[in-house]
Amino acid sequence: MSLRPLHDRVLVRRIEEEERSAGGIIIPDTAKEKPMEGQVLSVGPGSRNEQGVLTPLDLKVGDRILFGKWSGTEVTMDGEELTIMKESDVMGVIEGAKSKSKSKAKKAA
């Protein structure tokens, strides 16, 4: 199943942080905070200005972004928890960062 957000919204998968601290201490699930990093899975067409002209989004599929802990609305699709948020909730795009999912795939190969 796929979901296409409307207007200026984006669909994001949160990227989990490491389960160990820098000192090697394992952090239990109950003490973890919500991740503030995510990967954009889908973007809407954009918003319309007062003249009715469509303004496309700056984000694109695959961007790694930084957003507030409580931003957006959580939805579950195919057993996976995702977040839908407005583009204005995104604080920035992380450039030059390697995707953790790609590094996991390389280690498994």
List keywords for this structure.
mainly beta; 109 residues; 10 Kd Chaperonin, Protein Cpn10, Chain O; 35% strand; six-stranded antiparallel β-sheet; globular
Describe this structure in words.
The chain has 1 helix and 8 strands. By secondary structure, the chain is mainly β. It has a single domain (9-108), classed as 10 Kd Chaperonin, Protein Cpn10, Chain O. A hairpin with a 5-residue loop joins β3 and β4. The longest helix is centred in the last third of the chain and has 9 residues, at 100-108. The chain is globular, with a radius of gyration of 16 Å. The two termini are 27 Å apart. Residues 101-109 have low confidence and may be disordered.
Write down the overall geometry.
globular
Uncertain runs are 101-109
**Strand and helix order:** EEEEEEEEH
Mean pLDDT, all residues: 78
Cα distance, first to last residue?
A: 27 Å
Based on CA atoms alone, the radius of gyration comes out at 16 Å
**Helical segment count:** 1
* DSSP helix fraction: under 10%
CATH superfamily: GroES chaperonin
Number of strands: 8
Q: Which structural class is indicated by helix and strand composition?
A: mainly beta
CATH fold type? 10 Kd Chaperonin, Protein Cpn10, Chain O
Q: What CATH architecture would you give? A: Roll
Q: What topology, given as strand order, has the largest sheet?
A: 6-7-1-2-5-8
CATH top-level class: Mainly Beta
Whole-number count of domains: 1
